[in-house]
Design goal:
- By secondary structure, the protein is α/β, with parallel strands linked by helices.
- The strands form six sheets. A five-stranded parallel beta sheet has the order 11-14-17-10-18. It has a four-stranded mixed beta sheet with strand order 1-2-4-3. A three-stranded parallel beta sheet has the order 5-8-9, with helices on both faces.
- 45% of the residues are buried.
- The chain folds into two domains: 167 residues, Ribosomal Protein S5, domain 2; 298 residues, P-loop containing nucleotide triphosphate hydrolases (Rossmann fold).
């Protein structure tokens, strides 16, 4: 009996678990037996690994071969284990316990001719290996830039199985860590291009300053999509830890650039209004993949024509809006993905949506049913609601509005003030602050709270809505350079929740 051993990583959500792969060669009828809860893609790896080994000039054992993946109770999925399986087989057949296989994780899919193909989820896998104290990771050369984002662990890129075998024997070298190219700076859409709509522009500024959710309602062509697309340009660049987290999500989804994988700007995700529940929150057979809410993590999720989206998909947003994460239970386990995003919704006021409201042909019942697809609990989580109206001819001759750069400067100052105030309590933006902290440690004066108490007494506001109004009031105060909100800021925050606000 001869035994070979190699190691790989199983990725579940953004978490990784080390998988030990053993190859046992015993006397008996030639055959390959794969154990350890492999899925269909992994079952097929038997043929890929055999062809890759023989086509790389190595011998395939003419005996009974058992391949075991441990822990045995963890479902294994995908082709990421191919390289580790081949290494274990070569180790067992040649009876060579290569020292380089110790404390090294192997990731990669094998082609039949021995080429090592790229795989998804390399970044979270390498992060998990580093966290577990592993010394090195060998990845497909096409994934090397992605793996090089992780410091504190040696990373190598391999192109073929033959090259990898030579490296194990000390006769060849693998590509080492590379310096990733800077992300291509995409042109930022300028707020100055938006004609008129001062009220909605200010709402976008408030949303950016406090990380608040926003809903824009108005007829087609009025600028709802333009304003939503300009929100990411007002947000600060991602921190190093945020960049790695966002990049890891896109790595699992298979959406990274090969040469410049690091995502440094807040993502802007705009799914089609016909998207399913799985497309929005994540899903799929086996282990769930990240959906739009996770790909928009630390960025903006824009739902255009939100009244056209199926109700079940809209209601699925409630949990990630409240918790900042999404847990997806599937047959092969539970995947948890972060989903702390800013939601921007845009809707027409009615099905016919004429440019002039006086030309509307919809009956009142049709209007109520149309926007009635947006449930009360969902809208209660939206801090800013703005009704947009058609611009007049004078708006075309008026001077351009403020540029994105000017507004971004104010937003940065407001966010800095909020971070300084909340960071001792574990928060960074006004939208994250707990209601208990707002009501106890940062209680406003009776005069400032009067409009809020009146709304609560009249049943116009829930407790959750009151907390969200207070968060908006703090953002308005930060934008105005004040130390705390007064009656005017609280009143303005309430008017935002009622569908209109003035600056």
């Amino acid at each position: 009996m001869t035994l070979g051993r190699a190691f790989s990583v199983a990725v579940r959500g953004l978490d990784g678990l080390i998988v030990e792969i053993e190859a046992d060669i015993t006397s008996g009828l030639p055959g390959v037996h794969l154990v350890g809860l492999p899925d269909a893609a992994l079952q097929e790896s038997r043929d890929r690994v055999r062809a890759a080994i023989t086509n790389s000039g190595q011998r395939w054992p003419a005996a009974r071969l058992t391949l075991a993946l441990s822990p045995a109770t963890l479902p294994k999925m995908g082709s990421v284990y191919d390289l580790a399986l081949a290494a274990a087989v070569l180790c067992a057949d040649q009876q060579a316990p290569w020292f380089r296989l110790e404390k090294t994780v192997l990731l990669g899919e094998l082609a039949l001719d021995g080429r090592v193909r790229p795989v998804h989820g390399v970044l979270p896998a390498v992060l998990a290996a580093k966290k577990g104290g592993w010394a090195a990771a060998v990845v497909p050369v096409d994934n090397l830039a992605e793996a090089s984002l992780v410091d504190g662990i040696d990373v190598y890129g391999v192109a073929t199985l033959g090259q990898f075998h030579g490296w194990l024997e000390g006769a060849a070298r693998l590509a080492g860590r590379v310096t990733t190219a800077a992300p291509t700076a995409e042109p930022i859409a300028d707020l100055a291009e938006v004609v008129g709509q001062a009220q909605a522009r200010f709402a976008v500024e408030v949303a950016a300053a406090g990380s608040h959710h926003l809903m824009l309602t108005g007829p087609p062509g009025i600028g709802k999509t333009m304003l939503a697309q300009r929100l990411p340009g007002l947000l600060p660049a991602l921190t190093e830890s945020e960049s790695l987290e966002v990049t890891a999500i896109h790595s699992v989804a298979g959406l990274l650039s090969g040469s410049a994988p690091l995502i440094t700007r807040p993502p802007f995700i705009a799914p089609h209004h016909s998207s399913s529940v799985a497309a929005l929150v994540g899903g799929g057979s086996g282990m769930a993949r990240p959906g739009a809410v996770s790909r928009a993590h630390r960025g903006v999720l824009f739902l255009d024509e939100c009244a056209e989206i199926r109700v079940s998909a809209l209601e699925a947003l409630r949990t990630p809006l409240e918790d900042g994460e999404i847990r997806l239970a599937r047959r092969d386990g539970v995947a948890c993905y972060p989903a702390r995003f800013q939601l921007v919704m845009a809707a027409n006021p009615c099905p016919c949506a004429p440019a002039d409201p006086r030309d509307c042909t919809c009956r009142s019942l049709e209007k109520r049913r149309y926007l009635g697809r947006l449930s009360g609990p969902l809208l209660d989580r939206v801090d800013l609601r703005v009704q947009m109206h058609p611009v007049r001819a004078g708006a075309f001759s008026a001077a351009d509005g403020e540029s994105t750069a000017a507004v971004r400067s104010r937003v940065a100052q407001a966010r800095a003030a909020a971070a300084q105030r909340w960071s001792p309590h574990g928060f960074h933006t006004n939208a994250e602050v707990s209601g208990a902290l707002l009501r106890r440690r940062f209680r406003l004066s009776a005069t400032a709270m009067a409009p809020l108490r009146t709304a609560l007494d009249r049943g116009l506001l829930s407790i959750r809505g009151a907390n969200r109004a207070l968060r908006v009031a703090w953002t308005l105060s930060d934008l105005a350079g004040r130390t705390s909100p007064g009656r005017d800021e609280v009143s303005a925050a309430l008017s935002f929740r009622q569908g209109g606000a003035g600056r």
